[in-house]
Structure to design on (96 residues):
């Protein structure tokens, strides 16, 4: 008999938030959906792109979530940009 842990939280219906330069759920775990969205809801843009074909839109949205997870997009604003020092040197008038 396989036991399922009871302490695993389902994030499917939680809304993600942007806080401290990261996208997380209210308990501070990484969220792989854009801020203000949940895993359970297919965004209107995906539905429009696929002419209201919900299964196809849902599949594409899940692939996007997978890509976001693989590339750690939830923390993109807290990672240093590789080219920032060179850009700053080239454009000394930049304020950042």
């Amino acid at each position: 008999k396989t036991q399922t842990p009871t302490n695993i939280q389902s994030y499917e219906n939680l809304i993600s938030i942007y806080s401290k330069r990261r996208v997380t759920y209210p308990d501070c775990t990484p969220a792989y959906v854009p801020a203000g969205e949940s895993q359970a809801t297919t965004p209107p843009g995906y539905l429009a792109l696929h002419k209201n074909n919900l299964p196809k839109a849902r599949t594409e949205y899940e692939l996007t979530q997978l890509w976001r997870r693989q590339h750690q997009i939830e923390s993109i604003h807290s990672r240093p940009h590789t080219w920032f020092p060179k850009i700053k040197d080239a454009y000394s008038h930049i304020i950042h």
About this structure: The CA atoms of residues 13 and 41 lie 8 Å apart. Helices lie at 44-49, 54-70, 84-90. The radius of gyration is 18 Å. The chain is about 30% helix and 5% strand.
